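Notebook, p. 212. Picked up where the previous page left off. The plan for this session was modest: take the two constructs that came back from the sequencing core last week, fold each one, and keep the raw output in the notebook itself so nobody has to go hunting through shared drives later. Recording the first one now, exactly as returned: residue sequence, then the structure token string.
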Amino acid sequence: RRRRDGARSPSRGRSSMRFLSSFLVVSPVVAGFGNLSSAIARHNAAESTAHSPDDLAKEARRLRAKARLLRQEAVEAERSLKIYRQNAKDLSDQDADSWIDLLLGNSKTTMAVQVDGGEPAPISIETLAMRIKANNLYSFNKIQKLCRRLYDRETDSMPGSGVLLKDRAEFKLGDENNSVEKKENDSRRIAGLLDRILEAIQSLDDQCNANVASDVRSSIKDLRLSRDALIKRRFESLAAGKEQVSTLDDLVEGSIGKENGKSEAELQKQIAFRRIIDMPLWVPPSLSVLIAKAPTELSVSCLERVKTELLPDSGFFCTSWDYCSTAAVFRGRISLSNETDLIFNGIQSRLQTHPGLRDKVQLFLAEDNEWTGPSSFEDSSKPPGVIIAVPREVIPEHERIRGKTLVAALSVVLTCFTSFVFSLSAYALNGEFFRNVERNDVSAVVPTCLPLALGVLAVSAIHECSHILAARVHKVEMGCPVPLPSLETGTFGSITPLRSFPSDRKAMFDIAISGPLVATLVSFLLIVSGLDLTVTASAQELERFPVISAALVKSSYLVGAAASFISPKLMLLPNAQPFPVHPLFLVGWSGLVSQALNILPIGRLDGGRAAMAVFGRKVSASISFFSILTLVIISFVRSSSLIFFWTAIVATFQRLADLATVDDFSPVDKTRKNIYLILLSVAVLTLWPFPI
């Protein structure tokens, strides 16, 4: 019946279905290959014509037009944002002005009658406190907003505040409101009212056992310090003729290194120089140069995220903050003063896990450089700690200049040479050695001097290896050590720069003290072993030893004391009397003297780094200055060539303070302090002559 009605057979239906399914599968593949071949053809055609001059010119015109549109949009967005911020500030100022009117008893919506008018009768502190409580204004946010409004009025009324105006048209010359006398009177009255309000809040704090007044007073104090410093910098810039107004086009041209035809390197130097001139006082001197050379700047939104997302509930209560283009300071109180390092480490942990800040900002903890002394609400006589935020790209400079690399290579060669000369001079009074020199027997001279020279270099290598191991423990990167040659000791040691910031002063101390500590112990053991081997040596062995004068042993109190204990008769010899001594003694003597010189508390020496960690930057800077002055006096009084050349090297290359540590505020423990004082005493005893 199906066939009679015209239906297809099952076999034909199945074949049709197979054909249809095959067509549905194959046709997209064929179409895909067709599209792919067409795309390849279009790509090849585009490649053949992409680099033609006409297409490049057309693309350049399109990009310039797009850049103009983007610039116009940016200007409009900036103008809208400025209007929005100004409207928000106006609303906030209206609220604050109404609160001020309530405190002053005014019927108007501004405080002009009481503050900008004639001389009003001062309102008592008790009355202000009563009105604050009666009008429900006793809260931190309201008092902060009220006092900030008074601070703004005080700033606007100050003489010289016109330099703070971004729009010079707002300042009108000849306006009686800009007269010095009127501004001084207005500023004095507003400042007096602000201080009385803070005293009224303090009286309420005493009743309620709160800290509103102290927090607001600290914030206002920081704002005044920042304002005064900013006015001073603006006046200095105006006096020097450096105040320039740049258009948006100038900034765009300058950002790609084409300002007035200057190269990018010259432009970066000019920018760094301007940044150093305008650097606020709160920037640590150890970071100022690195911050000035930062390739990027910090945005205000990024700094606000630090304040609102990292600092809350961290133990650091931020009361105020200030910023410049490449740094910011956050002032406040630390909840537990004896756990400053733990609190700051917690903030650092938050920063490392924050997805939006860890690649943009790095934080430092340092003393407040603008601190002028304890106020009535501060108990500590020590500058408080502040958190400094800088761009992530601020790192210690890696000096890869070809000339300095050649100097380092030359210094290595000279150090090897002076170590060999030191060994040669030690054997000069040996009779057998002198005869070999007369016969030009190099095969006998070099093997005799080489062990002593290698021993001197080995002690220096132990010193540097101790530094490297300590740096690896604290995850601090160090540069390649550059040895310093010396004819008196073979080598003065090495200059080893830091290539990353140590985590805290403890890390700085451990890295600095590890080299001198280990090398001093090794050198003293070599001196004792050398003296003991000299006393127990036979006559044949003594003939092969280097020969030195008794004055060399007596040049150090520590060495002389060891010799007096091991061989008392040795110290009875005249200074010019030569005697043989084991080579280990000379290796130890050279190492002990070079370690004593390096442990002195000067600049970037190991002793200077340790002193900075123990005493802090300000105290260690004074100690460093007086140490250099003492070396200069000793080098001329005692006519010591060793001290003279060492003083010249230190004053030229190592007199400045070293890098900042991430936590430059938390002190080291008493154990580390005692270790440094003991090692410094050993250094003084080493350089002090033995009494005759």
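Okay, moving on. Second construct, recorded in the same format:
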Amino acid sequence: ALPIWLLWQALSPGRLQLELHGLPQLGKHWKHLLKKEQKASKQPGYVPGPQRPEGRFVPALLDEFLEVLDQVVVPAEVPAAEGEGGEAMQTEGGPLVLSPRPLLHCERLLELLVDLLSQLPTRRFVRTLLDDRAILVKAKLAPLYRHPSASLYWQLVDLFQFYMTFPINDHTGEALTDEDVTQAHYEKVCQLQRLLFKHWPKLHDLALANCGTVEKREVLRRHLASMSHEDLIKLMVKQLRLVSETDPWIASKPFLQEVMLTTYERRRSQREVINEMPLYPTEGVLWDENQIPSVNYTGEGCLALPKLNLQFLTPHDYLLRNFNLFRLEATYAIREDLADALGRVGAYWDDSGDVPVVKFAGWARMALPLNVFKITEVRKPAVGEFKPAAVTADIVIDTRNLRGNIRAEWDELKLHDVLFLLTIRPPSGAEVAEMFEGGRKPNAAEKYGLVYVRGCEIIEVKDEGGRLMNDFTGRVKPHEQKPPEGFLRTLTVALDTAQYQLDMNHMARVKGAEDMYGTFNLLVRRKAKENNFKPVLESIRDLMNEDVIIPPWLRDIFLGYGDPGAAQWRSLPIEQRLRTVDFKDTFLNAQHLREVFPDYEVRFATGGKDEEQLPPYRLTFPLEAEGQGEEDGAAATPSGRDAQEGGAGGDRSR
């Protein structure tokens, strides 16, 4: 009862009324708390709930966050508290830099809010307060969100937004399906349209439009732009109750518009986001210090990473956190391997021809220059998807300059092996010297001129004569296998369709963007034992696409709630206990069975001597009444026959 009273006392009156109206049982509880508080107010020394330290903590923390948020971005001539503010943001009023201490304060507070939202006991009432104060919208509208050096802040805000909109019923803990989320969204849109039709004649076009049109951000923005500031305040504060009338931010029309857009625009489901997420790391993720630090993490700053806590919201939340963490762990190992190869190949610019080209003076065991890279097929998307069904390409490499044992390693490449395509443009000497100015240490990508990284998976390998190598599909008979011809190898690979679609969208959106698929000049492989991250990620993703079914007696314990002892067999209700269990080939013989259950009297339903009772066995355990200290014996029977319902007579001794 305490969190309700203390936290929800800080809600705006309109939002509190909406919440209690939507939760009748909670409304009754709230009235009961009001009566108790009225009685307590007559006692000497009474302190109202909003004035108690525990009641002021979270609201005061949010107020402090918004106050400090305006102090992070400062003019360049204002000295920062300590250190530099990173890259400056150019504005009409001059360059703006970041103040380190206020920035760290904002990042730590966002991390705290994410932790509160990612656990059901605290999420249940904190999320309503955060939504009522529109903390997410205010965090996005702050100048810090637009600063080029605030990448960690962006990522923390994105993580904060993810848990603010997580599909779960905050009060029951029930996971919401995509259909539930869609139905609730359209019901909210329809309520908006009914209100507009009744009270806003000039917005009848929006009120009579279909839901698919109203939920579009551009359409909503266009209609909201036609409204005056006073009309927006009346609509959102008085009628929709999306913002408190005491909130000082209502003086900003862009803030009101953004709250409206965030509330009624369509959000992509988590399943769509996961399916469109690339499995291979790119250059943007590989050297992102906020997600994959290159030095030992000391804890002074925070990382934009999900945490494996003791509690999780849903099984999907558990899988998603493991998916992201395993992906980043694999990315760290890939980064180390790529940095090692980049330091060995010795890339340089050759200006002897009409057009400068990149050549390699060094040698690396795990890398080879590309002779040819050509995309051969881009299949049309499947129904309901936006990414291609498949993207295949041919790669030609030359192994003539390799020693015999190294060439044999490259010839052992086979189906499903993962490779990495790199574009390298080595920097000039002046550019390298500039990187080290001021004691700065550039990363491997900057130092060696790594521009693009894309992953791919081998479909087939052919020698110079066009014959298949290392084929396990049965197309090449064992007696037809011969040593490979020549030194040229043609690799047919499958590119990541999700990443390919993202790249194509970027090229279409940015005028003059480069086609990175025509710039690859180096191929890198990894050790097979260390390169199994892709099937693991695919398995986790496939699980997230299915409805994870967990038995009711195990669900709460799996998510970190309830009493762990409640999942024990003796703690389950009698009707949920499984009496007969087929143990398959668990036991070697009858003697082994008796040794495993020394406290039970084992009796075979088929009769006869132990030597005649051959496995496998099916065991029927006796029912244990409430409070009964002794149980009957267990009956065993070979699995091929029906088990008896009751156990044999006799007591067991402990």
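Notes on construct two before I forget. Residues 79-85, 625-632, 640-654 have pLDDT under 50 and may be disordered.
Flagging for discussion at group meeting.
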